[in-house]
Amino acid sequence: MGLLPPEVLEPVAAYFRALSEPTRLHILSLLRQGEHNVGELAELCGYTTANVSRHLSVLKKHGLVVRAARGNSVYYQIADPSVEALCDLVCGSILRQIEEGARQRAAFASMRGAADDSPPTKESP
Description:
Elements (H helix, E strand, L loop, with lengths): L5 H14 L2 H10 L4 E2 H8 L3 H13 L3 E6 L2 E6 L2 H37 L8
Antiparallel strand pairs: 1-3, 2-3
Helix pairs in contact: 3-4
């Protein structure tokens, strides 16, 4: 990608701010399964339709989702496959970090357990 020109830094930061909210990530995760309307997303997320609608507005503003009216409903879907690729990249990295942390904790616990099982040493008088 190379060096970003200063004039694109703010739009890039705004894009990542749109992705920095857990509710919006939840919505995007659901949209990866297929398109949904606001009511469906609200039910699946457990949020109010007003809350989901507000988050969808932010996602749409930054080009992360698109909407299509069908009859009385508006359906949302992910706008760009690179959003899914980015999510896969970031989620995969975080999963690897979590797994490595778990391995380190398990190794530490087994070391502590081995130390606890060793015979007591004689203390000098």
